[in-house]
Amino acid sequence: MIHLATYNSEIDAELLGSRLNAAGIDYKIHQEEGSEECAVMVFDDDYEEAVEVLEAASYADDEFYDGGASESADDLDDLGALDDDEL
Fold this sequence. Notes:
Layout: E1 2-7, H1 10-22, E2 27-31, E3 38-42, H2 47-66
Antiparallel strand pairs: 1-3, 2-3
């Protein structure tokens, strides 16, 4: 198996794992005892496709955050209410 990505939390590694699984790619999460870092590993034959899944996930996350709330909004109340026609 070959290293694809490393995350500081198991949850983030599992999220990538879910995307890999949906693409039909087998993976393994390796975590050293006493460490919070989780390495996502894939088979050599699946590496190129796994990189595409990883890049697509990164792009999708960027798109989500770019369209999100204003950086100056410290509280949900600061965002204001949506009108019915905006929903």
